Amino acid sequence: MATERIPDARPAIDAALVRRLVDTQFPQWAEMPLELLDPAGSDHVIYRLGEKLSVRLPRHAGAIGQAQKESEWLPRLAPHLPLAVPVPVGVGQPNFGYPWPWAISRWLDGEVATVEALADSPEAAVELAGFLTALQRFEPEEIPAQGAREDLTVRPLVARDRATRAAIAEVDGAFDAAAMTELWEAAISAPDRDGPPVWFHGDFHTGNLLTVDGCLSAVIDFGELGIGDPACDLVIAFTLMSARSRAAFRAALGVDDATWIRGRGWALATALNAYTYYAAVNPRVAAQTSRQITEALIG
């Protein structure tokens, strides 16, 4: 949800295409069965490959850098993080009319985290705070300078100003436009981060968390991984948590007032972006983003 939608033509992706791509570029896995994972999210089409692998193909141009980014950074990040993350095993190349790089990774067992299971769990909230703390402390051998690599740089929150105000006007009546405007103006006026840039996940919401037996097990989808202001990762507090668990999360992470209000702004902007695009055609997304907007307004 951290990335604004980018209008583009989407390539047709089906099992026959994926079979040809895998069999020609990774013949060692040519005999493994393919099973479509549905729903798989808005950015990728995902197939399970055998029992232990997954194939992920970007649906649109906004996701085309993820395969290379995860291949570069996740093997370096994984030893430092308290929850499992995807393990890339290969990056495929465009072919057979499919235009972009794609990825094969180790399959991670688990169910997508749900509000019903974890919203009122301060323990899960503290565990997520611990994950973000570990991510922010990650220090690779060579830390890219902020802004030196476009793929690791996020646009500032204020860059969403025009789109967010337009979305607020569009959903006026469904939500409190005055309250949303007040929150948004406070978020973009809040002081910038005081301190060096740190690593952030960039798309840290409920759909990118996995659980096993009701416990958090993995964090997935690092396409928006970057270095800068980690306020964008506070979105999880408003997609997943109740007020009680959110308080535990904030205390464990040690978030100051300015960062918290920026995080609420990220939650509002990303929820509005998804709501205005998907709500009319996807009831599940409508419910999720409605909750996110409501919780962001609560704070």
Structure report:
The protein has helices at about 15-25, 65-75, 115-120, 120-135, 160-170, 175-190, 235-240, 245-255, 255-280, 285-299; strands spanning about 35, 45-50, 55-60, 90, 100-105, 110, 200, 210, 215-220, 225-230. It has about 300 residues and is α+β, with helices and mostly antiparallel strands. It folds into two domains: about 15-105, Phosphorylase Kinase, domain 1; about 110-299, Aminoglycoside 3'-phosphotransferase, Chain: A, domain 2 (Alpha-Beta Complex), CATH 3.90.1200. The protein has a five-stranded antiparallel beta sheet with strand order 1-2-3-5-4, sandwiched between helices. A hairpin with a 6-residue loop joins strand 1 and strand 2. The longest helix is centred in the last third of the chain and has 22 residues, at about 255-280. The model is unreliable at about 1-5 (pLDDT under 50).
